[in-house]
């Protein structure tokens, strides 16, 4: 074999023109094969991906497998799991006729954008039926449930899936990037041509327009998926003094159940459903009914007339649930109209809940927060102040993780957010290796990354707090754990430092909307303790140092749960 190769080498060395001719012929043949494959127009699906009318992805269109992408809020899954996730039990299976039209390239180049969107919507009808294009404005929303934004990766499916999971009947898209959910459409219908903006994450589909919503009715496979499943139990509370003002809408129900009362209040667009024996009351959390003083649940244990295994309260003690209706009293946000007179830092160690605190401050004040950095993912989720320079003066406060003297002294005041280092280090490690709401892989925890991370970041947790206490001006210390446990009081302290007069009703509204888009799910937890004895000894020393520094300034020391049990 070696002799044969040697002969070929000598042959081409004597006649190089023949060698180059052979290479040219080889490349030409490859190009012809490539061009032929490009013009066949076939859609090739991997063998492990279910085809139309096969397996759990019954009726899935080939185009959907290619174009629909899960957004930032969703964990990436294998294709076989993604099929079941995207086309779960809440969607009816697409018809055979729909599957037959699943070729990419159905749209002619001369079709208008509106017609193209309509064609796609017809294909989507069995999963979510297109209702039409509707007027929308910031003062009176057409859909008044929850909402979320993604200015990079919004798709029809993401919006529909988010609304369906929360039990809503309608999903609407606007400006190509905004998603709104609701149980009732409260706006006028307009021509489909006015919904003409492509989805940011899916150029082939239409996602509303300027102050225009493309609205879909979610075709739920089971009615029970809509009914009460995601309502939040708030507790047992004493009947408010002025019931007609505190809970303005009510109805007597002979066969009372949690389902019926929650559905009734949801239909009336109220975030609270209060069960009082055979009467269902609806309303908002206000100073007349704050939900701050919970009673013993035994006082509300009277069984429902329509469901013997549920409690429906009494005429004096109400069982209260929070419906999926969004309380819009605290959802408006804007930039400051006049330049800020002082620069206030929202300072924290990474992983201490800074993004969550920003969400709360924006809802409480109605003004955007800024950042010392720029994070595109945060901007895409609705933190509009992220793009402003931190000294622009248009934001109410500025996020920062800086801890140097020069950087700290650049601010006129600060809210210093401190979190248990054991929790903060794990949260930042998850963010670093899994994104804002993701998780680090098992290999990262068991590998060299975690010990190295603790070694470098644990000292920073302590020096960050010590530096802000030493160099900061007008520093308000807020412990993350206190903010979670008593949000109303702690948020009121934070807003006072910012110099904003806020009505208590607005703070009560924030309590009901406290979870933002960057809440990491608590369902996935490590099955073991990642901290070694050496790590604990190191971190406990830093906790004692910070505790002493706080007490020397006549401040409350660290919470007891900072020390591991």
Layout of helices and strands, plus pairs?
Elements: H1 2-14, H2 16-40, H3 62-67, H4 79-86, H5 96-100, H6 113-124, E1 128-135, E2 147-149, H7 156-165, E3 170-174, E4 178-182, E5 189-190, E6 198-199, E7 202-206, E8 212-218, E9 232-238, H8 243-246, E10 249-252, H9 258-267, E11 272-276, E12 279-283, E13 317-322, E14 344-348, H10 354-365, E15 370-371, H11 376-380, E16 398-400, H12 405-409, E17 413-418, H13 421-434, H14 442-446, H15 449-471, E18 475-479, H16 480-485, H17 487-497, H18 504-512, H19 533-552
Parallel strand pairs: 14-16, 14-17, 15-16, 17-18
Antiparallel strand pairs: 1-5, 1-8, 2-4, 3-4, 3-8, 6-7, 9-13, 10-12, 11-12, 11-13
Helix pairs in contact: 1-2, 15-19, 17-18
Q: Which short descriptors sum up this protein?
A:
repeat; 19 helices; 565 residues; alpha+beta; 15% strand; Sialate-O-sulfotransferase; Rossmann fold
């Amino acid at each position: 074999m070696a002799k044969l190769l040697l002969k070929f080498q000598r042959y081409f060395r004597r006649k190089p023109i023949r060698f180059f001719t052979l290479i040219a012929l080889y490349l030409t043949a490859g190009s012809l094969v490539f061009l032929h494959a490009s013009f066949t127009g076939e859609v090739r699906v991997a063998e492990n991906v279910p085809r139309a009318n096969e397996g759990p992805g019954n009726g899935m269109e080939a185009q959907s497998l290619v174009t629909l992408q899960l957004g930032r809020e969703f964990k990436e899954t294998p294709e076989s799991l993604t099929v079941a996730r995207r086309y779960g039990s809440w969607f009816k299976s697409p018809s055979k006729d729909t599957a037959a039209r699943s070729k990419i390239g159905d749209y002619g180049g001369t079709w208008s954008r509106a017609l193209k969107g309509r064609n796609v919507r017809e294909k989507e009808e069995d999963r979510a039926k297109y209702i039409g294009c509707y007027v929308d404005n910031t003062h009176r929303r057409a859909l008044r449930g929850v909402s979320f934004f993604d200015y990079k990766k919004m798709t029809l499916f993401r919006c529909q899936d988010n609304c369906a999971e929360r039990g809503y009947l309608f999903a609407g898209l606007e400006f190509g990037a905004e998603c709104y959910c609701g149980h009732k459409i409260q706006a006028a219908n307009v021509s489909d041509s006015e919904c003409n903006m492509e989805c940011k994450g899916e150029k082939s589909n239409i996602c509303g327009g300027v102050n225009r919503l493309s609205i879909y009715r979610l075709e739920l496979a089971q009615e029970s998926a809509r009914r009460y499943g995601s309502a939040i139990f708030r507790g047992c509370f004493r009947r408010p003094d002025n019931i007609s003002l505190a809970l303005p809408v009510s109805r007597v129900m002979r066969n009372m159940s949690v389902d019926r009362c929650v559905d009734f209040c949801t239909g009336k667009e109220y975030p609270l459903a209060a069960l009082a024996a055979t009467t269902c009351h609806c309303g908002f959390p206000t100073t007349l009914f704050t939900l701050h003083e919970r009673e013993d649940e035994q006082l509300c244990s009277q069984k429902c007339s329509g469901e013997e295994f549920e409690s429906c309260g009494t005429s004096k003690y109400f069982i209260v649930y929070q419906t999926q209706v969004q309380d819009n009293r605290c959802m408006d946000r804007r930039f400051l109209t006049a330049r800020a007179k002082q620069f206030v830092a929202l300072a924290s160690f990474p992983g201490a809940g800074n993004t969550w605190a920003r969400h709360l401050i924006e809802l409480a004040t109605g003004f955007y927060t800024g950042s010392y950095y720029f994070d595109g993912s945060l901007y895409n989720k609705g933190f509009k102040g992220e793009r402003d320079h931190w000294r622009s003066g248009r934001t109410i406060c500025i996020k920062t993780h800086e801890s140097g003297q020069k950087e700290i002294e650049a601010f006129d005041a600060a809210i210093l957010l401190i979190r248990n280092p054991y929790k903060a280090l794990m949260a930042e490690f998850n963010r670093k290796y899994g994104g804002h709401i993701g998780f680090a892989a098992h290999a990262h925890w068991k590998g060299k990354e975690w010990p190295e991370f603790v070694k470098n970041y644990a000292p920073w947790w302590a020096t960050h707090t010590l530096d802000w206490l030493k160099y900061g001006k007008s520093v308000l210390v807020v412990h993350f754990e206190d903010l979670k446990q008593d949000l109303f009081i702690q948020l009121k302290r934070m807003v006072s430092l910012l110099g904003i007069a806020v009505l208590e009703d607005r703070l009560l509204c924030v309590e009901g909307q406290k979870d933002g888009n960057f809440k990491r799910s608590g369902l996935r937890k490590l099955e073991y303790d990642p901290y070694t004895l050496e790590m604990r000894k190191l971190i406990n020393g830093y906790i004692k140092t910070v505790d002493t520094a706080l007490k020397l300034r006549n401040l409350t020391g660290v919470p007891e749960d900072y020390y591991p049990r």
